[in-house]
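Me: I'm a chemist; would you kindly supply a protein sequence with its structure tokens?

Assistant:
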Amino acid sequence: MNQPVSNNIAVFGECMLELSLPPLLADQNSALANFAFGGDSLNMSVYLARLGTAVEYVTALGDDKASDWMMQRWLAEGVGCKYVIQSQGQVPGMYMIELDQHGERSFHYWRANSPAAKILDNPEQADAVFKALGSFATVFLSGISLAILKPSARAALIDFLSDYRARGGKVAFDCNHRPHLWVDPSEAIDCYKKMYQITDIALPTFDDEQMLFGYQTAEHALDAIQSEGVTEVVLKMGEKGCYYTHDGEHGFVPVEPAKVVDTTSAGDSFNAGYMNKRLAGASVEESCKAAHRLASIVVQHRGAIIPIEVMPSN
């Protein structure tokens, strides 16, 4: 495989069609649902592109009109689609968001046999995907990116990433745990531990780490993740802020209070704000501040992707 090229990033994952409902269907005179698209990896890719980072999205869609529309929208946002596979006769997955009066969300999915879930099932196609990923300096993925894959495909991806990192590539990872995607907690724990052993930049959320590993404090979680070999960890604490550790430096970055309308994509936008700054050479602390600025704006708007006109200046 080729050596990774400097200063570029590939994001690997799944994007689905999105239906979002008003909070508790309170406004009976409005349309019952808004039609869009979303997925943690695609949300991050869009925000990265808006912030000026060159990003390629690596995924699979169908060859239907909805898939064509999604790709056109991504390209219009500046997201690279060179490595988006359009599987013949397939359609993308779909999910619906319900919000409560506090802006907290719940999801309903129609994603069985989605093209992205089968992207590595064919050995020839898997080799092409790995070759594409291997040409980038940084590869980002999440626990969702892993969870939707068959166990054999998941193992092959982790093996590739281990080799990719040994050749000089950087792996960035957010476990973004979704319990319903795993057979049981032990399967997720085993996978995340393997990922942390080959991760350079970890962007986990404390609630996820506490749920799975039982950590009682942020310090405990940071120490445990570092003990797996990760040198740069940013632990997201929601509205409280984030803790970070990097090369012996430790710190906490608070977040300015914001009126929360919808928490969809809060973590994804944080990841984008952080990686955008880090890829440009900013410090970990400066990158955390930029990540908080973007996420605090995102949660004040409905949907995974906010209007471009309310984006903060980079």
Remarks:
- DSSP finds ten helices and 13 strands in the chain.
- The chain has one domain: 5-13+42-59+114-310.
- The mean pLDDT is 91.
